Amino acid sequence: MDESILKATKAGLYDVISEMSDGDPKELAAMNVIDAIDDLLAAMAASPPLPVMQVTDNVPRCSLGIPKSTWARLKREEAARVRGGQSTAMTKFTKAVTRYTKAGKTGKWIQCPCGEIARVYHFCWSASGCTGCGKMVDKYSWRVE
Q: How far apart are CA 132 and CA 7, in angstroms?
């Protein structure tokens, strides 16, 4: 949660309270909310920032509590970082594609000899066209993560 949003909410509550009459039950509820915001701001200031998690850490989305739309956006951002021959720190293309290579349910990133990176979901092909160099590259010339 953003600290500026909490501070703005707190300021808005003070404005609402100033317009209320003394003894109004809503005033007490607003004061309780302000106290909760103060506690949350103090906890946020005391706790270290959360570590940035790469989507490729093979952690199930459901165990992180990340909404599906956010997860999809993170995956798209990761793909954009990888695209164009620039791999993330987590992705190393050390193995060659063999006849035993499987893509799995989530697919695999592969790298052309020219450096272009693509995602495949099966290896039922003998050659694939590279979008970087425009050549048809033999399956066994590609590298897999």
A: 48
User: Among 114, 108, 116, 107, which residue's Cα sits nearest to residue 87?
Assistant: 116
Domain ranges across the chain = 3-46, 65-144
pLDDT digits (tens, 9 = 90+) for 7-16: 777 787 777 7
pLDDT in tens, 49-80: 655 555 444 555 555 566 666 766 677 677 66
